[in-house]
Protein: DNA-binding protein HU-beta
Organism: Meiothermus hypogaeus NBRC 106114
Amino acid sequence: MNKTQIVEHIQTQTGLSKKQAHLALEATLLAIKTNLSEGREVQISGFGTFYTRARAARAGTHPGSGEAIQIPAQTVARFRPGKSLREAVS
């Protein structure tokens, strides 16, 4: 499912116009992105939690040349599914 299909699904489920559904999705995604970039968790009850985690620098191998490279430390976004989502997918 892609973004356009999600917008169509929101439109069908809520009765909003396509534009309103698109704006609602964009606002939701922006809220998640903004909070994660500021180091805060985003918890959606019954769905799951988005959070960030620091990843340490590490040694790696360049796939094209096989040469050893250093991969820098970075902060990555993570997602931990909630109980009802885990049960729905099982």
Notes: Strands lie at 42-44, 48-55, 58-61, 68-71, 74-81. Helices lie at 3-14, 18-37, 83-89. The mean pLDDT is 96.
